[in-house]
UniProtKB/TrEMBL annotation:
Residues 84-214 form the FAS1 domain. Residues 1-23 form the signal peptide. SUPFAM superfamilies: FAS1 domain. It comes from the Bacteria. Coiled coil: none annotated. Residues 33-57 have a biased composition (Low complexity). It comes from Nocardioides dubius. This is Fasciclin domain-containing protein. Residues 26-66 are annotated as: Disordered. Pfam families: Fasciclin.
């Protein structure tokens, strides 16, 4: 009787030991599964911020140049505001380009510029026009044909990014214009006009603001 009891106790102890071992294994498996799931979640989470971080640098659409600090930080004349409007409308909100906008209106080129699919515009500032003596400027503004030729000499078909803008390009006036330089340093035309703020995006054009009026 005593021997039977001892044998039963031993069997019971073995069963309990086996059950505990299996439970422990199950806990380990669950822990491993949870760890793997966490690892996978962590990997997926870390990928997303990396993509977000890389996106702006891949666009290459940032304006550049010392003159860019003169562009309003917000409103219709800001980089964001100009990006949503066609080029003539966008320029009308920019405080640096009032004389240019007035000249474009006088020449009747607003619809032509706004309606084009893609352009690059070398846009002289008000200070650039101020370099021309008043009598000469008034004479040009009064001669629509001459004014149109001068203004379209500042416009090239297609949106030229900074890595494409250097070289010789045909203008809407039917002649050519040469851009020299690289990176963020460019000069335009025989006048060697400096780009003050380049790669400004509008809805249908890329704009390079220059410090000198370009002559055909």
């Amino acid at each position: 009787m005593k021997r039977t009891f001892t044998r039963n106790a031993a069997v019971t102890a073995a069963v309990l030991t086996l059950s505990l071992s299996l439970a422990a294994c199950g806990d380990d498996d669950d822990s491993n599964d949870n760890a793997n799931d966490s690892s996978n979640d962590s990997s997926m989470t870390s990928d997303d911020p990396m993509t977000d971080t890389e996106s702006p640098s891949m666009t290459g659409a940032e304006p550049f140049g010392e003159g860019c600090k003169l562009i309003p930080a917000d409103g219709a004349g800001s980089f964001t505001g100009m990006a949503s409007e066609p080029v003539a409308t966008a320029a009308s909100a920019n405080p640096l380009l009032k004389t240019l906008v007035s000249a474009v209106q006088t020449a009747g080129l607003v619809d032509t510029l706004n309606g084009a699919e893609a352009l690059t515009v070398f846009a002289p500032t008000d200070d650039a026009f101020a370099k021309i003596d008043k009598k000469t400027l008034d004479g040009v503004l009064a001669d629509k044909e001459t004014l149109t030729t001068i203004l379209t000499h500042h416009v090239v078909a297609g949106k030229l990014s900074p890595d494409m803008v250097a070289g010789e390009h045909e203008t809407l006036a039917g002649d050519t214009i040469n851009v020299s330089g690289s990176g963020e340093m460019f000069t335009v035309g025989k006048e060697k006009a400096s780009v003050l703020c380049g790669n400004i995006q509008t809805a249908n054009a890329t704009v390079y603001v220059v410090d000198t009026v370009l002559m055909p």
